[in-house]
Amino acid sequence: MSGLNGRFYGIGSTTNTPGFFLSTSIKDKGKIVGVVVVKISLNEIEKAWSEGPENIIVNDEHGIIFLSSKSPWRMRTLQPLPVQAKQKLQSTRQYSLDNLLPADYYPCFTVSNFTFLKDKKRTILLIPAVLYATNRHSRV
User: Fold this and answer.
1) Which of 53, 98, 126, 136 could crosslink 115 through cysteines, CB 3.0-4.6 Å?
2) CA-CA distance, 131 to 113, in Å (whole number)?
3) Is the domain of 73 the same as that of 33?
4) Do 98 and 132 fall into the same domain?
5) Total structural domains in the chain?
6) What is the pTM of this model?
7) pLDDT by residue (tens digit) across 129-139?
8) Of 37, 20, 1, nearest to 94 (Cα)?
9) CATH of the domain at 101
10) Which structural domain range is residue 90 located in?
11) Per-residue model confidence as pLDDT tens digits over 20-56
């Protein structure tokens, strides 16, 4: 425990329910004596997004879509996962590698912060709305 605040999106190891985990240390006279963790469900956000007109995805640093306004897009990868990324995901148990599927589209090029995706029928522009930590929230 380094004493820093933490944040992590993952699938709960006991509940198998996804959530956003926030943590901070508990100190007594400057010494770390424990940690408190809060899990926040993001189901209501996804539900609200699904009822709106925008196509929204949030992906992590590995290109894994973990939140989306379209449930079939969730738990898809925007690119093949490198061995290092797979090893990290196995060690953190953030997502089950068995459940990750490739997206029907892949990045074809990037200009500045804008990424263009291509599938069989069209080219899609990802517009970064918020860059927070290593997660990317985009409108598609």
Assistant:
1) 126
2) 10
3) no
4) yes
5) 2
6) 0.70
7) 554 444 554 54
8) 20
9) 3.30.450.20
10) 45-139
11) 889 999 999 989 999 999 999 988 988 998 998 887 8
